[in-house]
User: Which sequence fits this backbone?
């Protein structure tokens, strides 16, 4: 029986956009994330998928309060993070870490690898000499002790991502947000980093929020999956149910659009071709946000926003005319 | 066998860098037949883009290019700038990953297509404009007449890529080279663009070279595939045979490393891609290959027919049969 580590309720993040429209200045609101709720259990991996602009990265950053949510609550181990003061939040942040997409931008080029990995411990005031811990962490992520004295430019993309992971592990976090952690890596290198995430989780028992647009990787690593579209979760549930029996038309279309590395399957497959592009989050469609691209849309979809509802196969989806 | 429209032989491309000469392409042989869709896969630094930039004559002057590239019988290596200008856009077109930087921000879309038409064909401005609208319709842009009067910033990423395709096919080229055309796009938009490329290929009989790192995209649209590693072509063949019984250890490793439905553990290729300033001797993959022997460090293996594939591996015949990926 697993227990709840993180609970996100009605998370909203609006960004203000200043538009210079000739002589007039206008303010517009970008609704990046709207009423997103989910929870993550201890030791579990939640995959957060969606296309660009779906708000998945914003959700990840709001959880760590790297950006301040507009409203809604994030509870971590029972503490409501929005009520915490800066200092308290900093203390709690040692239990929540993040690994970024670009392993070239996320490491300071002028710091040795050892110094980068030590920094979180120094910031958090962990006493003592950290050199043993650095070696332990490097070995944990598949690098070696002598790498500590080197600089980031001496490493390949895959190795740098491992350094980023070692830094995230330095404070023994209970939750790591992995924001597109393998997207920048070559195919042959990706598999090794994905395996590393799995090994670390089975050894150390932390939870992951795995943010990615690559649905095949998420299917591989996630226990549960949340599919986002234009700032909202349209479907959430066990990985097996969501992938095998998607109930939201968008999930179905998204899964059918992913090219699979198998020519026989690819050529026999029925594909749902979505029309057009994702609408602007400045002025999202009324009712169901997917209705402008949905082949099932009817009048009710424009008037009434569908709520997340439990479906027979166990997952929840927000649709007036769910697939069965 | 369809006629060959593009024949690349022993192509080498070397860049002079502050750290010494870097040979990005090291003897590539490759054919493109009329009307086929050839996939070219490889990881970053494998030379897949550089090979085709060399074909297009788009590399900076400091790049040294040798070998032979025949396009419908015409030699492109060593061709004059004037000759290349006449070839590009007429016989050979290329589209890239980022459609925004391929378009001129201060000109209307329709004018940019007309410009391409009029630079190679003797057309009146009016006829070129009319043809531009037709081309926008062909690539699936709704209300093409109105859209032709708009500027690139008024288009979404997917729509811009369609515009770029319209420009590329304006003069009905023999070969369209598409370099990671969907990498910057979302999967649902990627599916649309791949469909446009297939439609163009069928309607005009254009041969398409699709350069990508995504084996899923290859499996979806390609007829044949070339696998590149460290500036060499290591395996080529039909899509069915390559996925059914890949022969080169690198191709096997690549296919085996991909996540597939089910929870079996992923199998990465050990090590990392070579530094092309100082590539390994012999078969460049020997440093990462589970089947490597001393013989692999000797000479660079040529492509040799192996069943219905061509494989550049001296040990191909001795290796255990690969699992099938179909």
Assistant:
């Amino acid at each position: 029986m697993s227990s709840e580590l993180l609970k996100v309720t009605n998370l909203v993040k609006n960004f203000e956009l200043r538009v210079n429209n000739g002589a007039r200045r206008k303010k517009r609101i970008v609704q990046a994330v709207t009423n997103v709720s989910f929870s993550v259990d201890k030791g579990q991996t939640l995959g957060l998928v969606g296309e660009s602009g779906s708000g998945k990265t914003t959700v990840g950053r709001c959880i760590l309060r790297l950006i301040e949510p507009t409203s809604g609550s994030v509870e971590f181990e029972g503490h409501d993070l929005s009520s915490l003061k800066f200092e308290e939040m900093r203390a709690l942040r040692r239990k929540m870490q993040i690994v970024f997409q670009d392993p070239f931008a996320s490491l300071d080029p002028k710091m040795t690898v050892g110094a980068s990995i030590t920094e979180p411990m120094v910031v958090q005031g962990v006493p003592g000499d950290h050199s043993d811990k650095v070696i332990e962490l490097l070995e944990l992520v598949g690098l070696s002790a002598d790498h500590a004295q080197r600089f980031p430019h001496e490493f390949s993309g895959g190795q740098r991502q491992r350094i980023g992971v070692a830094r995230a592990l330095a404070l023994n976090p209970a939750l790591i947000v992995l924001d597109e952690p393998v997207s920048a890596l070559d195919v042959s290198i990706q598999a090794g980093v994905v395996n590393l995430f799995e090994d670390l989780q089975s050894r150390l028992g932390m939870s992951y929020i795995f943010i990615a647009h690559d649905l095949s990787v998420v299917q591989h690593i996630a226990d549960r999956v949340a599919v986002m579209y234009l700032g909202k979760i349209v479907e959430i549930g066990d990985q097996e149910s969501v992938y095998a029996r998607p109930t939201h038309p968008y999930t179905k279309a998204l899964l059918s659009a992913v090219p699979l590395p198998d020519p026989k399957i690819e050529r026999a497959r029925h594909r749902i071709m979505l029309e057009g592009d994702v609408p602007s989050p400045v002025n999202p469609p009324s009712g169901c946000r997917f209705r402008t691209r949905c082949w099932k849309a009817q009048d009710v979809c424009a008037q009434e926003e569908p709520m997340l509802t439990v479906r027979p196969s166990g997952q929840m989806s927000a649709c007036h005319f769910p697939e069965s | 066998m369809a006629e060959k429209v593009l024949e690349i032989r022993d192509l080498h491309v070397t860049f002079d860098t502050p750290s010494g000469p870097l040979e990005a392409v090291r003897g590539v042989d490759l054919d493109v037949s009329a009307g086929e869709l050839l996939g070219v896969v490889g990881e970053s630094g494998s030379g897949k883009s550089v090979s085709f930039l060399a074909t297009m004559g788009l590399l900076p002057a400091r790049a040294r290019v040798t070998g032979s590239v025949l396009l419908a019988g015409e030699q492109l290596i060593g061709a004059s700038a004037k000759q290349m200008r006449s070839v590009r856009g007429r016989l050979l077109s290329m589209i890239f990953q980022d459609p925004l930087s391929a378009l001129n921000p201060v000109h209307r879309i329709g004018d940019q297509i007309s410009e391409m038409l009029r630079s190679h064909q003797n057309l009146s401005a009016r006829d070129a404009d009319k043809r531009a609208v037709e081309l926008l319709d062909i690539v699936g842009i709704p209300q093409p007449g109105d859209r032709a009067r708009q500027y690139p910033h008024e288009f979404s990423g997917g729509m811009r890529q369609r515009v770029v395709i319209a420009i590329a096919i304006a003069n009905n080229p023999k070969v369209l080279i598409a370099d990671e055309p969907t990498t910057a796009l979302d999967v649902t938009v990627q599916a649309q663009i791949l469909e446009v490329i297939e439609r163009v290929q069928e309607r005009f009989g254009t041969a398409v070279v699709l350069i990508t790192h995504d084996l899923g995209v290859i499996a979806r649209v390609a007829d044949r595939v070339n696998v590149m590693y460290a500036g060499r072509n290591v395996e080529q063949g039909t899509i069915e045979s390559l996925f059914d019984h890949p022969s080169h250890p690198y191709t096997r490793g690549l296919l085996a490393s991909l996540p597939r439905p089910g929870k079996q553990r992923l199998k990465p290729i050990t090590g990392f891609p070579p530094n092309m300033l100082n590539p390994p001797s012999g078969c460049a993959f020997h440093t990462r290959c589970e089947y490597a022997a001393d013989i692999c460090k000797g000479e660079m293996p040529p492509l040799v027919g192996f069943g219905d594939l061509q494989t550049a591996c001296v040990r191909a015949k001795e290796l255990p049969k690969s699992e099938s990926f179909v």
Chain A has a mean pLDDT of 92. DSSP finds eleven helices and twelve strands in chain A.
